[in-house]
Structure formats: C-alpha cells, structure tokens
Design a protein that fits this description.
By secondary structure, this protein is α/β, with parallel strands linked by helices. The protein folds into three domains: about 190 residues, TIM Barrel (Alpha-Beta Barrel); about 80 residues, no CATH class; about 120 residues, no CATH class. An eight-stranded mixed barrel has the order 1-2-3-4-5-6-7-8. Helix 6 packs across helix 9, helix 8 crosses helix 9 and helix 10 packs antiparallel against helix 17. The two termini are about 30 Å apart. The mean pLDDT is about 85. InterPro entries: dGMP_Pdiesterase_EAL/HD-GYP (IPR014408), EAL_sf (IPR035919), HDOD (IPR013976), RNase_Y/CdgJ (IPR052340). It comes from Salinivibrio costicola subsp. alcaliphilus. This is Signal transduction protein.
Length: about 400
Amino acid sequence: MSEIFFSCQPIFDDKQNQWGSDLLFREGLQNKFPSIDEDTATSRILSANFLSGKELDDDLRYVVSFSETALLDEIPFSIPVARLVLYITETCKATPVLIKQLEAYRKAGFTIQGDSTVFTNRWQRHLHLFDVITVSMAKEEPMNWVSTMSDYPDIRFLAKKVEKKEEFMLAKQLGFSLFQGYFFEQPQVKSHNDVAPSVISLLDACIVINRSPHDIDEITDVISRDVSLLYKVVTSANILAKSKKKPITNPKQAVVYLGLESLRRLISLLIMSNMNHQECSHLQTSAILRAIFMQQAAPMIKGMDPDEAFLVGAFSLLDAMLAAPMEDLVGKLDLDQEAKNALLSQSGRYGELLMLCKHIEHANWEWVGSVCEKMTLKERAVLKAFDKARFQTQTLAATMQV
C-alpha cells in the first residue's frame, strides 16, 4: 500500500458555493511541485482519487491536468465524465489529432479548461473547445478581460490568485463567474492510501487482451489473480455504472460491463501510475521500435506469429525499465515458451529476429548480413521493414510524446 499526496484547492462560484476542486500531485505533506513527470503525476492522482473506492462529492467537479500523451491515449474515458474537468496544459499543442480528440471529449460531456494563453497562441482558432478559462489576478490586469468575457458568453472565466475580499468583489463585478485563491481557502495537502497492482499483473493483462480479446473468461482470470487489479477493475465498473440499482461485485460482470476499450484505457492508466516516464521514456521508444519492426518482419519467417513477435520486441527492455532481472520478470509473464527463450537468451526464431534488430540498431552490418543469411531473409527487405518501423515510431513519438 502506498500513500498518495495531492494538493486540493477549492473553486467557488459567485455566491461562494464550492463549484469544484483543483487536484495537483505532491510527493509529501509540503505543498511543493513533484520531481516526477506530468503523466505519472496525473495517473497517480486519478488512481488514488477515482479508483480507490473513496467517496467523492457527486456535486463537485475535479480539475486534473492532462498532457497531450494522456489525452491522445484516451485516459480520461476511464473516469466518470460528470466529475472530471480536463485541464489542458501549456505543453499541449493544437495539432489536428489533439483537436479531434478534444472534440470527442466534449461530445462525451467532459468539461475542458485552459489558461489565458489560449487567446494568444494557436488555440485561439479553437476556443469553442473550452468551457472554462483561468486568469491569474496576480499576473494579469482583470480589467483587460471585460471585453473578452463579453465576446465569449459561453465560456466561464475563473479568477485565480484572489487574495482579498476587494479582489473578489472586483472580479465578480467585471464578469468573472468562478474564483479561487487564499481569500477563500489555502491549498490543503491531503493523502489517500492506494494499493497499486503489480506491473507484472498489468503486463499479463495486456498480453491476454491483445492475444485473446474476445475470451472474457481468460481476461477475467488474469485480472482476478491480482487482488489490487481486480479491485480497480470492479471499482471502475461501479463508478461508470452509477445508474445501476445493484453494485457490480462479480469480476466477469465488471469485465463485460467495462468492455475491451475501457479495460485497455484503465490498464494503460495503471501502468503509467506505476512507472516514472522521465526515467524510461527513451527505453519505451526503443521498445516500440523493436516491437513494430519484429511484427512487420514476422511474415517473412514461416510459422512466426506477428503478435507474439510484437510482444517480444515490446518487452525486450523491461529489465532496464523496471530495474529488475529479466529472469524474474519473464518467469511471471504469461508468454509462450519460445517468446520467453527469446527474451532470456535470444534463442529460437523470435530470439534470432530480436538479435537481428539489435545488430541493425548498432549498425553491425556484417552481423546483419550473417544473421539474414542464417534465417534465409532478404537483407534489403529486412532493412526496409526497419526503416518503416523507425518512421512509424518517430511519427508516434512526435504526435504522442512517447
């Protein structure tokens, strides 16, 4: 069990009734910015507050910051729409892909919040996506926002850093409808206990969902092996099924109710909350390149399963990512024996393909030719597949900040 700390600062309406709360990840009782990356912080906030069984006020909204990666991965869809406000951080770029995704969130009923910079950058062309805009009373002159608020009556403007009663009265008079600051309440650092599923359980769930997406019994079985993972799945199903008269208590019922896509999103969220992406993002990119290459090269080898080849490539750097011996990790994963042999000793067909990938990565061209000859592969076709995989990985990294 781990203790998750977060800063909670209320947001009020013009009648000083609480409208919602800002949730920000913290590493301890001191209200300081954490040293971990944004995606890990966001995922831990979501896991501890929405998937831990804690009772939240249904009448309040909870503002959580999301990076471009988390938004494109559809992580918010794991959380009840009515409660969650998606805060679009300054690092998010107004790309066509992200615009389309935000439109999907709006259609689903999510509230989308941004800061005042959206009026001065590329987001200016997409202001219709935002329901709430925050303006800092400490950094900006509130009088300058009167005409803007008049021009955008469908957007609610939130005055932050309201320190005194006079500032609240002025902001209210100018047209602001939401308020936050020390005048109302200082941020409080709170904590929730959160039991995180093991990474091995999460990876096993990924394997089964990708390999046997329609086998509900097998998916339920692998989820049920980890009590914490099962608890998160059942909790998530019950949160999303608020309208049901009876709570969901049966594991299989929870899996069926969530559905494949929601399960994938939930597991992605839990994996993110268990890893520090600052430390292993480059390893993830390398692993994705290997996975895509091996999947594309697999049809060149008789009898090789492209999906199994993908998993071997994807898991080939797990020991470095999790700082644990590969023997310990592979021994616990539900992989075919041939795939396990590939990861442990680069033996067998999958192992030879993985070794070929490593030689290409290090530009060991003599070895590349030798391995291709041994595997009766055309070197030109192999290198073409690697270039294609590298291009796809670069595209993925550029659009999703992998």
